[in-house]
């Protein structure tokens, strides 16, 4: 690091500060950047269909893993709630998926316990709970230190999952 450069603290942002609309912005971004989620979970994912019909409902994203198994992905850019837990379970059953991924900004301890219980007691599939956060792009001082240039990716991920 050169003389006169400062190191700042990493600022974490709510996903709502990064994406205006869950379906139009975040789900579309995730479909185009599914490799980010693949890297976090260690599962090779390929998107199949966004807003996949599941009876009268629609799963945010249907994907496949490297074995051709169906993976349902439900996004929630707020704190987890019972409605979304029910949606994930419905999509698992209706879409005959073997893996469920619930992406959220903040997992309530009760829902972490519920996902753990499902993984321990309901055989056949894996259920991942992933925390998403945003960080602003890095700011780098230009050579004359009189102006700043923004660069970098719009979002990074922090996983909060286990195979419970």
Biggest sheet character: 5 strands, mixed
Tell me the total number of β-strands: 7
- Global morphology: globular
Low-pLDDT regions: 142-164
Q: How far is it from the N-terminal to the C-terminal residue, by CA?
A: 41 Å
Order of helices and strands: HHHEEEHEHEEE
Beta-strand proportion: 25-35%
Structural class: alpha/beta
Number of helices: 5
Helix content: 25-40%
Widest β-sheet, arrangement of strands: 1-2-3-4-5
Tell me the radius of gyration. Answer: 18 Å
Give the overall pLDDT as a whole number: 79
Task: Give the arrangement of secondary structure elements.
Layout: H1 15-18, H2 22-32, H3 34-41, E1 46-54, E2 57-64, E3 70-79, H4 82-94, E4 99-106, H5 109-121, E5 126-131, E6 139-141, E7 148-150
Parallel strand pairs: 3-4, 4-5
Antiparallel strand pairs: 1-2, 2-3, 6-7
Helix pairs in contact: 2-3
Structural commentary:
The protein has helices spanning 15-18, 22-32, 34-41, 82-94, 109-121; strands at 46-54, 57-64, 70-79, 99-106, 126-131, 139-141, 148-150. The chain is of the alpha/beta class and 164 residues long. A hairpin with a 5-residue loop joins β2 and β3 (70-79). The protein is globular, with a radius of gyration of 18 Å.
Describe the structure using short key phrases.
7 strands; globular; 5-stranded mixed sheet; two-stranded antiparallel ribbon; 164 residues; disordered C terminus; alpha/beta; 29% strand
């Amino acid at each position: 690091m050169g003389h006169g450069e400062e190191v700042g603290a990493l600022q974490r942002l709510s996903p709502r500060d990064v994406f205006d609309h869950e379906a139009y912005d975040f789900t579309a971004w995730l479909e185009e950047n599914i490799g980010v989620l693949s890297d976090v979970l260690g599962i090779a994912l390929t998107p199949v269909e966004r807003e996949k019909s599941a009876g009268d409902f629609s799963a945010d994203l249907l994907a496949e893993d490297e074995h051709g198994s169906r993976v349902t992905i439900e996004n929630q850019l707020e704190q987890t709630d019972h409605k979304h837990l029910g949606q994930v379970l419905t999509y698992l059953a209706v879409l005959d998926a073997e893996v469920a991924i619930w992406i959220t900004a903040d997992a309530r301890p009760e829902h972490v316990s519920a996902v753990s219980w499902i993984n321990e007691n309901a055989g056949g599939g894996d259920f991942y709970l992933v925390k998403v956060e945003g960080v602003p792009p890095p700011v780098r001082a230009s050579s004359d230190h009189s102006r700043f240039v923004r660069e970098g990716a719009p979002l990074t991920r922090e996983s909060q999952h286990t195979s419970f």
